[in-house]
Amino acid sequence: MDANIVLLPGDGIGPEIVVQGKRVLEAIAAKFGHSFTISEHPIGGNAIDDFGDPLPQPTIDACKASQAILLGAVGGPKWDDPTAKTRPEVGLLKIRQELGLFANLRPIQTWDELVDASPIRREIVAGTDILFFRELTGGIYFGDSGRRPHASGEEAYNEMVYSTGEVERVVRLAAKAAQTRRGKLTSVDKANVLEVSRLWRQVADRVVKEEFPDLEYEVVLVDAMAMHLISRPKDFDVVVTGNMFGDILTDAASMLPGSLGLLPSASLGSDGPGLYEPIHGSAPDIAGQNIANPLATILATAMLLRHSLGLEDEAKAIEDVVAATLKAGHRTKDIAGGGAFVSTTEMGDIVVNQLG
Ligand code: NAI
Ligand code: MG
Question: How many alpha carbons lie under 13 Å from residue 263 in its C-beta half-sphere?
Fold first, then answer.
């Protein structure tokens, strides 16, 4: 297949890890006979330095003309000046908005070889394989907000709003993903207290009943979900929830595997390109040292192939190679536990060679 893929390396370790993702995409193209046109564009702090804008218009145009985008990370101390006109993260928020990316996907899986680094006991956490769908463009982060006078000084408020359409589209995406996995969908809300959650549950129940009757479906209250994630994470397959609940639950869940350097994420809209990235940031403390772990970014390329290009075998090939690489004992510094470690580029070499 022909595909147009945009790389947004960004700041800090972003360029070091994205180049390894690029090599993996090239290796996949060669192995499976695809033709990927790959171009690189500025975003974040480096774009502020060069163009005075964290998301220059040519970057937006290139993203909109692509099938998929691989992002490194943005930000760093250099751009933390609170008096600055703009900040690197603005570039990230704006590109998500420009592309209508309303669903954030975060797979949480464990690797047997690393599971002892998890804060949770092996017998509870080993074998965990969850795919979170966090709604990204609605809810309390985007509702009306403000402050007003109050007898005690002032009061502040944030409104939490979800529409039928916003719930339908994210539940539908999550349900489709569940069909391709273990066939189980969990919707998380707070319907015992919040009117917004009562609408969420009503819509989710209807969408699943009418369009996905074969799924094993359950609803769980968010506070209970926080407990279940820690006590029985293996019981979940696909989990769908609103913006704020998803923000908190996915951060908690990201601790289960025992390393941040291995976790990818995706942001999807109804059509158009998806945006794929590692969940970690630009790691300015290790930037330029060739020690960053490129595996989260490499796993993000697998998600890119699966969700934006429909290339499941290719995605699986990458995931299998990453699993084999870890099994063979190759470790970057962050997961070496003080033992011998390979560099960013060496880890890229190992993965690319195994793919070839
Ligand atoms: P961070 O995720 O960049 O780093 C946290 C710790 O994990 C650091 O010690 C770092 O060295 C380590 N780490 C992160 N990724 C790693 C990798 N691939 N290999 C090995 N070690 C890794 O989070 P932090 O320090 O809070 O933020 C640093 C900068 O990144 C800030 O400017 C922040 O705003 C930005 N950031 C950007 C994100 C994005 O672009 N999506 C997300 C989170 C933070
Ligand atoms: Mg967060």
Answer: 25
